[in-house]
Amino acid sequence: MKCISFMNYNGLTSEEVEKRKKIYGKNEITRTVKINPLKLFLSQFLSPLVIILLFAALISVLIGFLPGQEPDYIDAFLIFVIVILSSLSGFIQEYKAEKSIEALQEMSIPSIQVMRDGEIIEIPVTDITVGDLVLLEAGDVVPADGKIIESFNFKVDESILTGE
Predict the structure, then answer these.
(1) Which of 41, 102, 105, 156 could staple 91 via S-S, CB 3.0–4.6 A?
(2) Could you tell me which of 8, 10, 17 has the C-alpha nearest to residue 123?
(3) Which among 26-35, 79-88, 129-138, 153-162 has the top mean pLDDT?
(4) Looking only at Cα atoms, what is the longest distance across the chain?
(5) What pLDDT is attached to residue 81?
(6) How confident is the model at residue 163, as a pLDDT?
(7) Domain containing 132 — which CATH number?
(8) Which burial class, exposed, middle or buried, applies to 108 when counting CB atoms under 10 A from its CB (0-12, 13-18, 19+)?
(9) How far apart are CA 161 and CA 87, in angstroms?
(10) Could you tell me if 121 and 136 lie in one domain?
(11) Do 93 and 68 share a domain, yes or no?
(12) What is the reported pLDDT for 32?
């Protein structure tokens, strides 16, 4: 390995890694709830603006039943159509976003170099545990929270997190 001064550290032992994995689990984001399309669609109608529009459509119809008034079904129908189209659009966007997140989680798991038992080995990032010594090189993605022990010309691009 190019980073000779890193050899002063031995990293975790295999036994310690197993203990910590039992305590802390895998280094991954888990989704416990699968998306329910019906629930996602119905949630579109919980927006305050949508509720106001539905209430306005209902009032538009009910006013027509007052003496001397005719029900205005066209306005109510148009409001309902707009609400349905808006909710359908919101549902499609959220459903696609949820599916994209699921697809990202199922993509191939990248690997990273760590120091374990005094040797540099390559492991999947999901196998990193608390206390692992991770070797990062130019272009690597930081796979977990950590402390920097030693660095040379270290720079981080956080734009993916901040959106800048």
Answers:
(1) 41
(2) 17
(3) 79-88
(4) 92
(5) 93
(6) 60
(7) 2.70.150.10
(8) exposed
(9) 29
(10) yes
(11) yes
(12) 65
CA–centroid distance for 63 within its chain:
46
Q: How confident is the model at residue 91 (pLDDT cuts 50, 70, 90)?
A: very high
Residue closest to 20 by CA, chosen among 124, 127, 135:
127
The angle subtended at Cα 139 by Cα 137 and Cα 143, nearest 5°, is 75
Q: Over 90: is that where the pLDDT of 102 sits?
A: no
Q: Same structural domain for residues 78 and 102?
A: yes
Radius of gyration of the chain (CA): 28
Q: What is the pLDDT of residues 14-24, one digit of tens each?
A: 889 889 889 98
What is the total count of domains within the chain? 2
101 and 136 inside one domain: no
Domain of 46?
37-106
pTM for the predicted model, two decimal places: 0.50
The Cα 155–Cα 139 span in angstroms is: 10
CA distances from 41 to 80, 85, 91 (A): 15, 11, 5
Residue 102's identity, in one-letter code, is E
